[in-house]
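Lab manual, section 2.4: Encoding a predicted structure.

Procedure: take the sequence of the chain (156 residues), apply the prediction step described in section 2.3, and record the output as C-alpha cells. A sample record is shown.
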Amino acid sequence: MNWNKYLFTEDEFILEMDSLTVKRILTKNDFLKFTAVFEDGQYVIRSNISVGVLIINGYKGMSVSTHAKITADEEKTIVHLKSSVRPEYYLITFAFIFFLAIGFIKDFGWSSLGLSVFFIITFLWFRLIIQSQEESLHQVIKTYFQNLDDLKTNKG
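Recorded output:
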C-alpha cells in the first residue's frame, strides 16, 4: 500500500497507507475506512467512530457515527471541514431526557414550574455534551488529515 496517498474524485475518496500506519491507527482505535460521495460541490465523507475513540477523547459511552463534509477547491485541497454526530444520537439523548422526566414526575409530582426548570436544565446539559462531542469528532477528523499532510510534506 502507498503510505500517504489520498485522492478526491467526483466518485470516490481514496485513502491508502502502509502497514505500519494502519497498525498504529488500529491500536489507537482510530477510524480507518471512509466512504464518500460528491454532493453539491462537497465531498461528503462518512466513517464510523468507535467507543474506543470516544474513550481516547475523554468520552465513555456507546458507539456513535459521524459524518463529515469536506469542501475542496479545484485542486482537491481541503478548504473547509465540518463534522457532527448522526441524528440517531440526538434521538437517544431525547429518549433519555424523557425517561428522566418520568422519574422526576414520579418523585416530585406534576409541578409545572419544577418540571419546566428540569427540562430546561436537562436540555442545556445534554446540548453541552453533544456540542462537546461534535467538536471532539471534528478535531479527530481534522487532525487525521493534518497528519496525512505532514507525512506527505516530510516524505517528499
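Check your result against the sample. The helical segments are 19-27, 51-56, 87-108, 112-155.
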